[in-house]
Design a protein that fits this description.
The chain is α/β, with parallel strands linked by helices. The chain is built from ten helices and ten strands. The strands form two sheets. An eight-stranded mixed sheet has the order 3-2-1-4-5-6-9-10, sandwiched between helices. A two-stranded parallel sheet has the order 7-8.
């Protein structure tokens, strides 16, 4: 497994995949899956960037089946509208990659529904999206859901007393909480799928430290994090390399439900994909169940 590379991606022909996010890791996921023969829907909130992503993919895969669909994960109405379009358009979904994220806005921002932006986009939006797409996933061929976490989840804590960071907003703490929540969601989805017979394989992945625009887009290019990303780029592995754990989780017959995958070198910051260490707090099933119930309440979305 430690030498798994893009060439090992199995054929994805006759599979339908939805990938959230138009740049960075999402773009690399969509490109690889398109080249492997999947029908790919790239879902994002910026139509211009979406069109650019689709054009770039078609340049490399002229016969690829790929398209853009509008989806703002910071808007529960947009998520519901996207899912409604998919239900009307698709017979089933075989793969959902919950990838899109925002990272470390320097000041607290909120979604259109009034929730802290990182929690809303990274976790709650993907929770609601997966719930709305559950009927399509259940009709998919060996369906998988891969949810992106981060090495930042190691320092994360689910703060039910201040889940929306209203009392005290610390950018990295809020980001770490959101990514811990993503990992706990992937593990809890696996447990609930097994218990309810949904037939969905739920996995999690993280990209290590990768060269994407997530940091400068969130913190700003002139922030310390943005300057590091711009001028110390050699410390970050390429986005295509960072996407490999996700693609491994999405496609390998060796990737199992409830698994967590990431780079295998230098403390899981870079290198080929393999099993990642699950932080102790992510294994707390009572907290995971409580978080699930809270997410249903906040989003109004239910898995049924």
């Amino acid at each position: 497994m430690s030498d798994w590379a893009l060439k090992d991606l199995p054929s994805q022909s006759e599979r339908v995949a939805i990938v959230t996010g138009t740049g960075g890791l999402g773009f690399e996921d969509a490109l690889a899956l398109t080249q492997a023969g999947a029908e790919v829907i790239v879902a994002g909130r910026n139509p211009t960037r979406g069109a650019q992503a689709i054009a770039a993919i078609r340049q490399k895969s002229p016969d690829g089946r790929v398209r853009f669909e509008l989806l703002d994960l910071a808007s529960l109405a947009s998520i519901a509208a996207f899912a409604e379009r998919m239900v009307g358009d698709l017979k089933g979904v075989d793969l959902l990659i919950n990838n899109a994220a925002v990272m470390k806005p320097p000041t607290r921002k909120t979604s259109s529904d009034g929730y802290e932006l990182q929690f809303a986009t990274n976790y709650l939006g993907h929770f609601a999206l997966t719930a709305h797409l559950l009927p399509l996933l259940r009709r998919g061929r060996e369906p998988r859901v891969v949810t992106l976490s981060s090495v930042a989840a190691r320092s994360g804590r689910i703060d039910f007393d201040d889940l929306q960071a209203e009392r005290a907003y610390r950018p990295m703490a809020a980001y770490s909480q959101s990514k811990l929540a993503c990992l706990m969601f992937a593990l809890e989805l696996r447990r609930r799928s097994d218990a309810n017979g949904w037939g969905i394989t739920s996995l999690a992945a993280h990209p290590g430290i990768s060269r994407t625009d997530l940091l400068p887009n969130g913190s700003g290019r002139r922030s310390f994090a943005g300057v590091m990303r711009t001028y110390l780029w050699f410390m970050f592995q390429p986005a295509a390399q960072g996407a490999l754990p996700t693609l491994y989780a999405a496609s390998s017959p060796l990737a199992s439900g409830g698994g967590y995958y990431g780079p295998t070198r230098l403390g899981e910051t870079r290198g080929p994909p393999g099993p990642a260490a699950i932080p102790a707090q992510a294994r707390d099933e009572a907290i995971a169940a409580r978080l699930w119930t809270e997410a249903e309440r906040l989003s109004g979305a239910a898995f049924q």
